[in-house]
Design goal:
With 340 residues, the chain is α/β, with parallel strands linked by helices. It folds into 3 domains: 44 residues, 434 Repressor (Amino-terminal Domain) (Orthogonal Bundle); 129 residues, Rossmann fold; 141 residues, Response regulator (Rossmann fold, 3-Layer(aba) Sandwich), CATH 3.40.50. Helix 12 links the parallel strand 9 and strand 10. The termini are far apart. Helix 1 packs across helix 2, helix 1 packs across helix 3 and helix 5 packs across helix 13. The protein has a 6-stranded parallel β-sheet, with helices on both faces. The chain is built from 13 helices and 12 strands.
């Protein structure tokens, strides 16, 4: 068999006894070729070891068969679950998905976006550090479809897919209030992240609506949304005077909640008797924790799938109109907040 790099469309046509146009149709418009001819061409490709030159096709078409998702934090299972939803929609259209990690750094996000535009991806899905970043507007203005994932903007310049995080924050704190907790902490940060800010806002609204002074909601800001920061927050909570120490905590995501849970167990505190804990996202690890974690569930796969469908619609439909899809979160109660 000849080297696959040296086999050309002409070689395939000669081996199959068909024209160059027929081989092209088999590659690009197989519905236009009879089944018997298509099978003969495909057999020749297999025998010769023909590999399609996708770069050449991309150059002619001006676009690739790739979607891209620029996620905020590849270490957070929430974003990889969203990516699985993206992939499921892309696979149905015969597309691949390129995953990029901004690591919550706008400079890195911008670099990814610039390279993706050069690769002529069909569309870019992005969970941005700043949804109003000018380079996202510039990318869309130059013709690349863009969908904002897990964020919202103040305008309708893009399609966006997100969850009502203000409502999610309310659900978490209302749950703790219903259980009789009078001292509650919010753990999360930095508040420059839109989701953290919205979840804190919802928590405060629920607290004030229950007739509690806003300042009595203890806020422990973290530098990142990761497990070690949750453990550190646990140490800070434990260091508070007993009369001020919260009996419950709402964490801005499940990784923080798992870290807080680890600290409580390692220091001999009982969950939920000494400290009730609510997380956010309902990643798979939440239900599998040493004490199954109560969490505010986001439809992770549906977020990704919907975002991919929107970007594909924009790429293929001249009459496409931008949509701002906002899903409703759901509180999933487990043992970490069981009735007191």
């Amino acid at each position: 068999m000849a080297s696959s790099r040296s086999v050309s469309v002409k070689d395939v046509a000669a081996a199959a006894g068909v024209s160059l146009g027929t081989v092209s149709n088999v590659l690009n418009r197989p519905d236009r070729v009879s089944a018997s001819t298509r099978q003969r061409v495909q057999a020749a490709m297999a025998e010769l070891g023909f590999v399609r030159n996708e770069s050449a096709r991309q150059l002619r078409a001006g676009t690739s068969r790739t979607l891209a998702y620029v996620m905020l934090d590849a270490g957070n299972p929430f974003f990889t679950d969203v990516a699985l939803g993206v992939e499921s929609a892309a696979e149905e259209q015969g597309l691949t998905v390129m995953l990029c990690n901004s690591a919550n750094r706008e400079s890195r996000e911008r670099a990814h976006v610039e390279l993706l535009e050069q690769q002529r991806v069909q569309g870019v899905l992005v969970t941005p550090v700043d949804p109003h970043a000018a380079f996202l507007d510039h990318l869309a203005a130059r013709g690349t479809p863009v969908v904002i994932v897990d964020r919202t903007r103040d305008d309708e310049a893009f399609c966006s897919v997100a969850v009502d995080d203000v409502l999610g924050g309310r659900l978490a704190v209302e749950h703790l209030l219903d259980l009789g907790h009078e001292r509650v902490a919010f753990v999360g940060g930095p508040v420059s992240i839109g989701q953290v800010r919205d979840r804190l806002r919802g928590a405060r609204e629920a607290w004030v609506d229950a007739g509690r002074p806003e300042e009595d909601l203890v806020v422990l800001e973290t530098d990142q949304l990761v497990v070690p920061e949750g453990r550190e927050a646990g140490a800070r909570l434990a260091g508070l005077a007993a009369r001020r120490r919260p009996t419950a905590a709402f964490c801005a995501n499940d990784l923080l909640a798992l870290g807080l849970l680890q600290h409580a167990i390692s220091t001999g505190r009982s969950v939920p008797e000494d400290l009730a804990i609510v997380g956010y996202d309902d990643i798979e690890f939440a239900a599998a924790a040493a004490v199954p974690l109560t969490s505010v569930r986001q439809p992770r796969h549906l977020l990704g799938r919907t975002a991919a469908e929107l970007v594909l619609s924009e790429a293929s439909d001249a009459d496409h109109r931008h949509q701002q899809v906002l899903f409703t979160p759901e509180l999933v109660a487990r043992a970490s907040t069981a009735g007191r």
